[in-house]
């Protein structure tokens, strides 16, 4: 190996590429999963989202959340009659033009209850949430996200106490939400304005029913029971016959996370498949070079056998060389992976997280490749006839 450094490096190249690809691919998958878990956790704890719509009308099935059919009575029933429910907030959504001084922006507004911030784990950077009294009185108050605040008032400015116009209706800002960043679908969660749902229905949307409810269960253990109880309650309230399609749907934050992770898992499998192909090519390269080495060193092998070396000694010698080549290649591949993963995050902004298990697995695979692909050349060397080997030129 020392006499043929360049050949040894070229032999290890396939292993280096394959192992580094395994490290980077696994780190991309792990980093993406961690990012999704963080984003899903930012949605709240033990969250269930109840959507309206989804029923059939004239033979055509509408999409969930497409038509509001959840009533104030449903809201009160969910709060009072479903065991295991910690908090409930209705949701009225729409787009509005916000104006502050000579600045304006278009933003999605959410009409919610005072419990919404707690359900969705929203903290306040400055100010505070609006109150239940504000909801009852349809008060013209709001809380806004950091992106919205920066667009209207500039970075570093505290907007609490300022008055903005929301579709020409004046609203007083009572709180600034702490930043959350983008969600798992790439949407900026900080470009938002929250208002009491009564104010949204009366002054902005004109809706008389809700498209969705945000429901927080008391614990993860009762999530399934809460979903069952909600289904039974709404089927009864909406007079839906047993066996008929419901005119609502429920999703949990875990389901949102599973959906987002599915794409990441497919990407990781594809990357690791290409990495596996590279490792096989690298193993074939090691076997090829070792066969060439056996041919080049036939007289050396013959001399060793002639002076008393046994076949297993020659086998061990060539097998050790193959394992060392693959192990060195694996070590260099791991080092390359450790260098490429953070570089990918820095250049492309893709989250990566290297796990110890992937490093151990990668190094073990590289050593195994040396054993598997080095065994045949080593066996060929061990089975050489000493007389034929000595006469070989």
* Backbone CA Rg: 33 Å
Mean pLDDT across every amino acid position: 82
Largest sheet properties: 6 strands, mixed, barrel
Tally of separate domains: 2
Q: Major sheet: order of its strands?
A: 4-5-10-7-9-8
Compute the separation of the termini in Å. Answer: 22 Å
How much of the sequence lies in strands comes to: 15-25%
* Class by alpha and beta content: alpha+beta
Total beta strand runs: 12
Order of helices and strands: HEEEHEEHEHEHEEEHEHEHHHHH
Written overview of the protein:
- The protein is an alpha+beta fold and 393 residues long.
- It has 2 domains: 162 residues, no CATH class; 177 residues, no CATH class.
- The protein contains 12 helices and 12 strands.
- It has a 6-stranded mixed beta barrel.
- Helix 1 runs antiparallel to helix 8, helix 1 packs across helix 10 and helix 8 packs parallel to helix 11.
- The chain is elongated.
- About 2% of the residues have low confidence.
Topology:
Layout: H1 5-42, E1 47-52, E2 56-57, E3 60-61, H2 72-81, E4 85-100, E5 103-112, H3 116-119, E6 124-127, H4 132-136, E7 141-144, H5 146-153, E8 163-166, E9 169-177, E10 192-196, H6 197-205, E11 212-217, H7 223-237, E12 248-252, H8 253-296, H9 298-306, H10 311-348, H11 356-382, H12 386-391
Parallel strand pairs: 5-10, 7-9
Antiparallel strand pairs: 1-11, 1-12, 2-3, 4-5, 4-8, 4-11, 6-9, 7-10, 8-9
Helix pairs in contact: 1-8, 1-10, 1-11, 2-7, 8-10, 8-11, 10-11
């Amino acid at each position: 190996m020392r006499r043929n450094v360049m050949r040894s490096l070229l032999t290890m190249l396939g292993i280096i590429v394959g192992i580094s690809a395994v490290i980077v691919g696994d780190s991309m998958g792990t980093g993406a999963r961690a990012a999704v878990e963080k984003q899903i956790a930012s949605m709240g704890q033990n969250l269930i989202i109840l959507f309206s719509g989804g029923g059939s009308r004239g033979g055509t099935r509408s999409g969930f959340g497409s038509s509001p059919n959840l009533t104030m009575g449903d809201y009160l029933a969910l709060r009072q009659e479903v065991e295991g429910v910690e908090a409930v907030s209705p949701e009225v959504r729409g787009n509005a033009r916000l104006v502050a001084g000579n600045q304006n922006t278009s933003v999605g507004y959410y009409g919610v209850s005072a419990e919404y911030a707690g359900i969705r784990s929203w903290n306040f950077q400055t100010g505070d949430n609006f109150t239940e009294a504000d909801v009852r009185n349809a008060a013209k108050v709001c809380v806004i996200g950091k992106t919205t605040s920066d667009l209207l008032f500039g970075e570093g400015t505290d907007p609490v106490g300022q008055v903005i116009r929301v579709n020409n209706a004046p609203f007083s800002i009572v709180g600034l939400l702490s930043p959350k960043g983008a969600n798992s679908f790439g949407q900026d969660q900080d470009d938002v304005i929250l208002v009491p749902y009564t104010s949204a229905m009366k002054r902005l949307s004109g809706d008389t029913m809700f498209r969705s409810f945000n429901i927080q269960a008391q614990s993860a253990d009762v999530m399934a029971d809460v979903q069952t109880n909600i289904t039974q309650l709404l089927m009864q309230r909406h007079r839906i016959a047993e066996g008929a399609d419901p005119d609502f749907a429920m999703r949990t934050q875990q389901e949102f996370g599973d959906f987002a992770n599915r794409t990441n898992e497919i990407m990781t499998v594809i990357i690791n498949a290409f990495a596996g192909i590279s490792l096989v090519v690298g193993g074939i390269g090691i076997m090829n070079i070792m066969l060439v080495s056996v041919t080049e060193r036939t007289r050396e092998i013959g001399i060793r056998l002639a002076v008393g070396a046994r076949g297993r000694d020659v086998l061990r010698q060539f097998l050790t060389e193959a394992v060392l080549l693959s192990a060195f290649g694996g070590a260099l591949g791991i080092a390359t992976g450790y260098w490429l993963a953070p570089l990918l995050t820095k250049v492309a902004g893709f989250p990566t997280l290297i796990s110890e298990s992937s490093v151990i697995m990668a190094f073990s695979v590289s050593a195994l490749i040396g054993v598997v692909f080095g065994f045949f050349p080593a066996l060929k060397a061990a089975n050489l006839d000493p007389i034929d080997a000595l006469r070989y030129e």
